[in-house]
Each structure stands twice: as structure tokens, then as C-alpha cells.
């Protein structure tokens, strides 16, 4: 009799575990469609094609930043400087555009500045054994200070043709969406089909074992931060181009939106788990929530509360599903 009861308990536990693992695999898609349905019921304008296009276009920058955060979080790190580096890269790109009139030079400047800041973050972490939280927090202050000095706290206008990067169309599709999709696919390819991507997962999963296997972990970490920084720099140029000016304060809080998108999309803060397509869906979920709250005239303060609850909920689910898997 006791053996039968034990077997039933084990079967019930297995079914619960299967449901949790099923949620980890497909839950984000179910949440995505649930939010669409709820938003449509709350506001009839939500499903308007123009509104849906605006959601994707407005969140293209967040999705690019979220790709950068996904790479870092999967490897067991994080970047709290992304918003301020975005502003620095974007403003310097705008300055180069105003002074040279060259879109290529402006793009190169923005991406290079982001990459340099990312590499410096990685250098501080690997050379001086700083925690990513501390190193990137320091970079956030440095980048913000340089941006304020360079711009004098004022917007940089007159960026001319650069605005096409943020406002242009390729057929019926806004250019920022095309750039976003390119970065998503590039991130997917790197993480799933390259040795470097394998190292990203390995470091986040078990850094000591990765070191023991002969991987140059410190060099890989610097490359991870370099890659994420390049994405941040590109995001800065796209955002400033969409705004048609270099705005020194526009990046504040963008890193937290990106982290929210990555975590909601299934990237684990414990490292070693995450995929960029989940991150893309997470970014769209965050964008839809912001959109419906704006359509319902919910204040920014309450929106911040909801984003905080989203992160907390996603982390709780991550912990519970990870424990179920083990």
C-alpha cells in the first residue's frame, strides 16, 4: 500500500515538473498572446496596424540593448552602464554628423564608442577582479559625465541625413526594425553556431569547469563585453536618429528595460540559460505593456512599479523552474 502511495506521489511530482519545464519552453509565447488579448479588450485602438507597428519600432532600441544584456546575463554578468553608454555613443555620433556631414563616420563613431566602453568594462572586471555590478556602475557615471561635458547638457540638433537610420523606411518596414532583426539573428548565430557562443553558455553555467577545460575565460569575458558594447553603441545611434537630435539624458533607465526584456524572455540570472528569440518576445511584451498603459493614461510612476513587479515575477519563476529541473 505504501509503495503504491509513494509511486503516485512520484508520478504527481513528475507531472508538476513536466508542467514547469513546459512553461519554461513555451510559457513566454502564451504570455505574449495573453497580453495581446487583454490589451485588445482594454483598448480598442491597441490592434490598429499603425499602433502595432509603432510598438515594434519604438522598442527596436530596447530589443537591441536586450540582445547585449542577454549575452552578458547568460555568461553570468550584467551591464548597468548601458543606458549612459548609449547616450554617450549617440551624442558623439550626432556631433560627428554635424561636424563632418558623414553618416558613415557618425555610425562608426557611435558603434566604436560603445565597443570601447564595453571593452573597458570587461578589462576592469578581468584585470582587477571587480564585480560586473561595480565596474559597470563606475562606467555609468564616467559615461554620463563625459556626455554632460560634451553636450553642455543641451541637445545636439542638425544631424541631417543621420535621421534616416532612425526614421527611414525600406519598403513598408521601418529601418530600425530591420536593424533590430539583423542584431537578433546575428546574436542567435553567434550564441548557437560558434565556439564563442558555446563559451558564453559555459562560463555562465560553470566558470570553474570552463577554466579547467582550457578556455581563456578572461579574454572571452572581454570579448563578450566588447560585443555587447558594440550593440549598445549601435542602439545609441538608432535612438538619436529616431529622435532627430542627440539627447544627453534619453538613455536613463534604458538598461533596466533591456534587463527586464531579457529576464521576462527566459534568460536566467543564474547564468547559462537564455536565448535571444525569447528576449525579442520579452522586449515586445514590455513594449506592449508600456503601450497599453500609455493608451490608458497610466502615469509613469505606476509603469515603473509594474516593470519592477515583472522582473521580480520573472526571477521567481526562473528560480522555481530551475529547482524543478534539478
How would you describe this structure in keywords?
about 325 residues, two-stranded antiparallel sheet, ABC transporter involved in vitamin B12 uptake, BtuC, 2 strands
Can you characterise this structure?
The model has no long low-confidence stretch (mean pLDDT 90). The protein has a single domain (13-325), classed as ABC transporter involved in vitamin B12 uptake, BtuC (Orthogonal Bundle). The chain has 326 residues and is mainly α. It is globular and about 55 Å long. Strands 1-2 form a two-stranded antiparallel sheet. The chain is built from 14 helices and 2 strands; from the N terminus they run αααααααββααααααα. The relative contact order is 0.18.
The residue-averaged pLDDT reads: 90
The total count of strands amounts to: 2
- Work out the helicity level: over 70%
Beginning-to-end CA distance, first to last residue = 28 Å
Whole-number total of structural domains:
1
Q: Which strand order spans the largest sheet, edge to edge or round the barrel? A: 1-2
**In terms of structural class, how would the helical and strand content be classed?**
mainly alpha
Q: Radius of gyration, rounded?
A: 21 Å
> Main beta sheet: strand number and arrangement?
2 strands, antiparallel
Number of helices, where a helix is a run of at least 4 consecutive DSSP H or I residues: 14
Strand content: under 5%
CATH topology: ABC transporter involved in vitamin B12 uptake, BtuC
> What series of H and E elements makes up the topology?
HHHHHHHEEHHHHHHH
